[in-house]
Amino acid sequence: MARAEERRKLAGMTKFFQGERARVQLALLTVQLGYGVYYVLTKAAMTGGVNRFVFAVYRDCIALCLIAPMAYFFEKHLRTVMTIPTFLYICALGFTGIFLQQNLFLAGLSYTNTAFAAAMQNAIPVFTFIIAVVIKYEVIRFTKPDGIAKVIGMTTAVLGSFVMCLYRGPILLGEETVPMTDDGKSVNDMVEAHGWFASKMLDFGFDIWQIGALCLVGNCFCMGVYTNLQIPALRRYPAPISLAASSISVGALALVVTGMFSVAKASDWVLSTPGNIISVLYAGAIASGLNFTLQTWANQRGGPVLVAIYIPLQTVFSAFLGVMILNDPLFLGSVIGAILILTGLYLVIWGQRLHRQAKERECLAVPFTAAAEDIKEPLLKPSSDQRASSSYGTIPRK
To answer: I need a surface site. Which of 117, 131, 328, 394 has the fewest CB within 10 A?
Structure first.
């Protein structure tokens, strides 16, 4: 009996994971866990002295080696002729979504910690929605419940971003340490020596943590611009993997050119330790290659709302791994800001769901109303035999 019960349970679990919705959820869990590990490994590489331009170039080259063959073989029938407007869209995508976004994220991660950087990524859907409203891709009905939910959600998320940038508070977990480079210099010295933007911000009275927070806000904004730019770009070039590969190529080229002027020593391009090599390989193969494929597949089957709901899990995974492996500090301000951002995110998602349901009700109501007004005679006319039989009267019910 016990063995039969175990077999039934195993069969039930197997049947559950055979369902498409369960596979989508498992894929999204894998994606967020992959990002959590990516933040920890990248933070360790940055602390170990890897230049962020070098890290980004290697990551994009590895991702391009994985994505380019897929784009070439699977999207031959989708690619259109490359025109000047399409090329300009690809350049804009590569500059915002690859070059700026990665630079700002890696700078913000090196100046803060994994939990904070992952928590700030929850603001990406909100920034995306705000930009979509500004450029008229999304509509806010201010007098309807869905519009009120969207406005409150966006305001709450922006407030959470400001809290995370400007307030740290006491340490809840981990220990605060001053990151050091391989040369024994602190991040303050490194910023003043190599980062003109960071040096200017230090002159204005900002500390290292706030500079990193601003970089992460800029990273989220660039991702919002990148996501909205994809809409007109895909209309002109309806091959998503090919578009991503082209954008990565442009971004990687910009990173190489910038790195040639920013990287002081040629030896910085050599990854000397096994840990740094593993971090770069993981970033290119998993964070870019596998996660991009799984997220695209899940988006096609579950929709963007389901994908957005799983984004906060990367905060949990990265915070846990960062505290356990790197002993990163978890500040009260980060927790408060993350809660506000998550609340705003779910309010925006809820408002979008209410708006979609309202549009579906309106679409369902219009045909029936028009049919009642337009139909003047029955759609199925009686035959001649039926008309003849009806002249003898109706048959009484028994």
So the answer is: 394
Cα–Cα distance for residue pair 40/317, rounded to 1 Å:
10
Please answer whether residues 45 and 278 qualify as being in contact, where contact means their C-beta atoms are separated by less than 8 angstroms. no
d(CA 315, CA 16): 27
Task: Tell me how far apart the alpha carbons of residues 122 and 110 are, in angstroms, rounded to a whole number.
Answer: 19
pLDDT of residue 370: 45
| Backbone dihedral region for residue 72 (phi beyond 0: left; psi -120 to 50: alpha; all else: beta) | alpha
- Residues 161 and 212: their CA atoms lie apart, in Å, by 12
Helices (H), the chain: 2-18, 20-47, 52-74, 84-93, 101-111, 114-120, 124-134, 145-166, 187-194, 196-203, 208-236, 240-262, 274-282, 291-302, 304-309, 313-321, 332-374, 384-390
Residue 225 has pLDDT above 80, yes or no: yes
Query: Model pTM?
Result: 0.70
Structure tokens at 93: 């995508």
| pLDDT tens for each residue of 94-120 | 999 889 988 898 888 888 877 778 778
Q: Give, in order, the Cα–Cα distances in Å from 59 to each of 44, 106, 133, 200, 265.
A: 15, 12, 32, 29, 20
| Cβ atoms < 10 Å from Cβ of 169 | 13
| Interatomic CA distance for residues 199 and 191, integer angstroms | 6
